Amino acid sequence: MATAATNDRFPNAPAEDAPEAVVVRFAGDSGDGMQLTGGQFTLSTALAGNDLATFPDFPAEIRAPQGTLFGVSAFQINFGSSDITTAGDAPDILIAMNPAALKTNVVDLKAGGLVIADSGEFSKRNLEKAKYEANPLEDGSLARWQVLAFDISALTLESVKPFGLGNKEALRCKNMWTLGLALWLFDRSRQPIVDWLNSKFAKLPEIAAANIAALNAGHAYGETAELAVPLKQLHVAPANVPEGLYRTVTGAEAISLGLVAGAQLAGLPMFFGGYPITPASAILHHLTRLKEYGVTTFQAEDEIAAIAAAIGASYAGQLGVTSSSGPGIALKGEAMGLAIMTELPLIIVNSQRGGPSTGLPTKTEQSDLYQAVYGRNGDAPLAVVAARSPADAFDCAIEACRIATQYMVPVILLTDGYIANAAEPWRVPDMSTYEPFPVQFTTEAQEGGLKPYARDEKLKRPWIKPGTPGLMHRIGGIEKEVNTGHINYAAANHQAMTEIRRDKVAGIAKGIRQGVELGTETGKLAVVGWGSTFGPIHQAVRRARAKGHDVSHIHVRHIWPLPENLGELLKGYEKILVPEMNTGQFKTVLRDQYLVDAKPLNKISGQPFRIAEIEAAIEGMLA
Amino acid sequence: MNDMTTIAKTRVETTFKDWETDQEVRWCPGCGDYAILKAVQRTLADVGADPKNTAFISGIGCSSRFPYYIESYGFHTIHGRAPAVATGVKLANPDLDVWIITGDGDALSIGGNHTMHVLRRNLDCQILLFNNEIYGLTKGQYSPTSREGTKSPSTPFGSVDHPAKPAAFALGSGARFVARGFDVSKNLPDVLKAAYAHKGAAFVEIFQNCIVYNKDVFADFTEKKNADLGQLWLEDGKPMLFDKGAKGLKVNLDHLHLEVVDVIDGDWQSANVLVHDVKNRAVAHMLVEMVFGPFPMALGVLYDDPAPSFEQAVIEQNVKLAAGKVADLQKLVSKGETWTVSGGAQTDAAEAGSAGSGPEL
Description:
The complex is a heterodimer of chains A (623) and B (361). Chain A is an alpha/beta fold and 623 residues long. In chain A, the strands form four sheets. Chain A has a seven-stranded mixed beta sheet, sandwiched between helices. In chain A, strands 2-3-1-4-5-6 form a six-stranded mixed beta sheet, with helices on both faces. In chain A, helix 9 packs across helix 10 (281-287) and helix 11 (303-315) runs parallel beside helix 13. Chain A is globular. The model of chain A is unreliable at 1-18 (pLDDT under 50). The model of chain B is unreliable at 1-8 and 344-361 (pLDDT under 50). With 361 residues, chain B is α/β, with parallel strands linked by helices. At the A-B interface, helix 1, strand 7, helix 9, helix 11 and helix 13 of A face strand 2, helix 2, helix 4, helix 10 and helix 11 of B. Strand 7 of chain A pairs antiparallel with strand 14 of chain B.
């Protein structure tokens, strides 16, 4: 992220019109196809070799009333030639498809930034819906920014006229017209988008042709129009990134791929039980198409059935996986306890969203950490792993599979709405470099008879599949007797079993070492993060270090158990700052585990941290 | 991969003793569950079930302790969720014979949703619902099948809500096999055998006498002295007769409901007594709605008309879609629009071969 120079149009871009990074936000009505436009712009940006990060931000309503403030859907992309780790703080360019989109988004635009607006949508009625008293395109209220307003609606209608579409259908091509203009603006090839439209509308060739015509018309408009503020093509240089094969990946894709890879590394078929919920459903959608990888997906009747079926599949010898978001995870709580008690491998993916209750279904938050670490009845330890980014989610999913199968324990994989939906370039991993961790099912009785709850050196119990001759046994949620697994309510036995379950999970930390992302292993200040706050923390620490501050960035993947050296590491810093998108949950865990004076920095707005917010907190701590 | 087209069950010779575990049975002395346990063990031996390929999955309640007492694989899960766990078990290993053991509270109150869906999907399994019309394990509260006016610790002035009818619920949920029996009935093993033979979800309501909290609640038809008038044992292709053949059921065709008719001298034909057809869903709906008292209790196999089972359909689709495709993980992660970064320049996938000399951007 480098937006640190000035020119008139992009005050934070280098003066010579070759900005290192540019932030563009597409905003429109939820029916305007902004996510699609953003997604395709992302693809063209990736193909142009830029590093990038995106932030889709859309309303919970599928089709919110047209033109309303709460119906605005936005997609932000930060791309450039430097290492991009966030979707950018403030956009340089805002493309606003209607008054409501302008109103809700223009406040974020950098001073001097560019607004491109569809003046055709600025009717009296739409202005009223957006609660504008006067037309902002005309009343001078946008003086801080540069405004390019033209009738995109009319231009689109004109461009698709030959295809004889109805007015409504014709106007749906507006997003492609806008994308065409954006592609021109950044000197991007239209071909991948044309290919995509042809395949998407293969059965509706006239729709494909109309959309392509609109795309070309938008592009041509940039090329030829004489505008009050001349648009000049922006050329963002390719990023300097490690060599290799790259693709873009969203968190939901990366988790799906990681789970498939993890199951294969364990040598197991995978069973995925899910129930539709935003923003977790995408994982079910991806996995159901991967049947040749031994994946069975099951859309259950509810969240409880989804996890219960996954437990059943694990019991029968597959790798059981379930996935949800906060409210659904809450419903799964009792079943997680069953998996803990029966010591079966299980992966529970939580794509966190704003809570409590239904909360903010499409907004991001990190507020399920307590729920993950502590949220069950009884002393019910399990492992918790948190992904920092879409690409990191791949490795985290594999790690979850490893822990679950190597320790016979449920693992919660924490991600969030931001990671799930956001895309970033991903260097395609070389799968031959991943160490397999094949599962060994127990097929013969131990010495002295069958002991389904005997332990190995990691305190793992044997995994015995039904169907195995001679090893019939019963398991269940009632307290188990040490070794035999029979029902046993005795006081000493419960004490022993509770300690075994605790120690087994604690033992997962063995060999897991916490490193420092940026900075030094001791010093004045450590900024300790987890999950999707990685990007803004990293950039904020980088900026602060560039100013000469003694600050380091530590980012924790293993939330429970914590890495074996984390306590020692933290004690090497004078101060600790923990930025989180909650009211301070990880901070509390760190204080509890290590008696360190971790200070919280909290944001609970449903939006990711801005770099500047964390930078200010760092400066405050070091002042 | 499992063979999804046939259930090549090999008969395994066992005696009912082979199905007993070393665990002490912990039901109350005199509980109807003992008789059901024996009937199930006898059935398993009779049908030649394979202990290693048998899995008993239960929820929570007195009945759900059942798996601990069967020498096979067993999973005592959580309240109401046995059908969901069983669905995962069966999808993961369709070679297993899956038995779901549940009760009236477990299956119709906390787990009603799962019961409905396991029946609708038609998972190949046997579902034994022990109906005693009471919550036994929690000490006697009224249950979703308790009759109106049931006095219990939670309804000391009598319950006021209408009871659920398990067999009607099952049929309404799309069950393809619905049967009834009762704990001490000598016919219970035959009912269980029919359930076992049915491919798909086989739902069996077993009236069970909770001698502590709801004693003799079914005595009006289970007791020997009431058997003739109280029990109508259904047999496919046989007339629906009871009271030693002196009474039968017929359909009133004007109003489309069942009626009890007297049969004179065994001439059921002229009394228009219905012949039981296990595949007749319309009549099955009438049988499960039949009010006990004016009518006898319909027992045996009320309905049995197999349809493709869920796990079979899932696995068939999985196999079909995977056919001819290679599970190449490296290919999978490399999917989609890719580009290559080499020596500081990049090319798109089409030009990935020309490493080091990407086009000017």
